[in-house]
Design goal:
By secondary structure, the chain is α/β, with parallel strands linked by helices. The protein folds into 2 domains: 1-158 and 230-281, no CATH class; 159-227 and 302-342, no CATH class. It is built from 15 helices and 6 strands. It has a 4-stranded parallel sheet with strand order 2-1-3-6, with helices on both faces. It has a two-stranded antiparallel ribbon with strand order 4-5. A hairpin with a 2-residue loop joins strand 4 and strand 5 (190-193). Helix 2 packs antiparallel against helix 3 (63-82) and helix 3 crosses helix 6 (141-147). The longest helix is centred in the first third of the chain and has 20 residues, at 63-82.
Length: 342
């Protein structure tokens, strides 16, 4: 092997949109909406994209390798989308084409020519590659370096109180289940998720609910820092779940401006299917995947303030004093930046 660096200076994919956010922030709701915009391909959950970014951000992968591999991955998945190769046809999956407003287009593409003919379609239609990632913002720099001005990020956020139960239902899968596809770290014979880096000892010795608080607090620090960085306003749009589901119009237009593509008639249909706008933030459709993560059907008549207080009281009971103090500081910072909805 020579000492030459990896390189990919030419690109098939001219524009990339990433929808990111902590698990439970509403990406399942928001991804069909983004897919409904003009030129945007169906959402792809590409774990290898996450793995490359996490590896590079943690100095496990050289910058030339991450730069070229991310671009190569983007181009191959972009091309696959144009010819309907490796497209998700499982009807029940969140990333299924049948959850998209463009299902018929993907079916037709199955019978269209690839190669040069596909290249001509790309030049004519100029599709936008659309990826969905999980709590990746703190490791997004390798993607920003690789894609430059071609990348736009939509960052879903949600009040920490409304993430706790969702995360608590899953937290013990990390490091214990082979069906958990998160990168793990080894610490003194214990396995912890990559986002517990820097607090491994605290994480290992904590009870599950405290673990949830520690990692949510850690992950949200990057969100808070980026959300208050004016230099990023043309690259990242922050979408607070609470404000969006109550009053979506401003965010629909914000996404248009960010990605340079218009909403369509299908966009309104997606909003309606997600019961947006709604009077109560949790009055959305009850999907099986939500039930899997502990979300129970909500009483749509519950006052927002009462519901907020119920969750705060429950968190105080379930967590240690130390963890609850950290949660309170996280809550205060979230509300300072993104506000309250009631």
């Amino acid at each position: 092997m020579t000492g030459s660096e990896f390189s990919r200076p030419i690109h098939l994919c001219k524009q990339i949109v990433i929808l990111d956010g902590l698990t439970g922030t509403g990406k399942t709701m928001f991804s069909p909406l983004v897919s409904s915009y003009e030129r945007v391909q169906n959402a792809r959950f590409e774990y290898m994209f996450e793995y490359l970014c996490i590896s590079a951000a943690n100095n496990k992968l050289s910058s030339d390798a991450s730069h070229s591999l991310l671009n190569l991955l983007a181009d191959t998945k972009y091309y696959d989308g144009v010819i309907s190769r490796e497209v998700n046809f499982r009807p029940g999956d969140l990333s299924s084409i049948f959850k998209s407003s463009k299902a018929l287009k993907y079916i037709k593409q199955l019978f269209q020519a690839d190669g040069a003919a596909a290249g001509e379609r790309i030049e004519k239609e100029n599709p936008i590659l659309f990826l969905v990632t999980h709590q990746l913002l703190s490791c997004m720099q390798p993607a920003l370096n690789a894609f430059g001005e071609r990348l736009r990020i939509i960052q879903m956020v949600r009040h920490p109180l409304y993430l706790l139960d969702h995360w608590h239902s899953y937290i013990d899968m990390h490091g214990h289940s082979p069906r958990d596809f998160t990168i793990w770290l080894e610490h003194s014979g214990n396995l912890v998720p990559w986002f517990a880096a820097g607090l491994e000892e605290q994480y290992v010795n904590a009870q599950p609910f405290d673990k949830v608080i520690y990692v949510i607090h850690t992950l949200l620090q990057t969100v808070f820092q980026k959300a208050t960085d004016e230099s990023l306003k043309d690259t990242i749009a922050f979408v607070p779940f609470e404000q969006f589901v109550l009053s979506p119009d401003g965010y629909v237009k914000r996404i248009e401006q960010l990605i340079g593509a218009s909403a369509t008639a299908a966009t309104q249909k997606v909003l309606s299917s997600q019961k947006v706008p709604r009077k109560f933030i949790n009055a959305g459709p009850q999907k099986n995947i939500y039930k899997r993560y502990g979300l129970i059907k909500q009483d749509k008549t519950v006052n927002h303030a009462d519901d907020y207080q119920r969750l705060l009281t429950a968190a105080r009971i379930k967590s240690s004093p130390e963890a609850f103090s950290i949660l309170e500081s996280c809550i205060n910072e979230y509300e300072k930046i993104f506000g309250l909805w009631f």
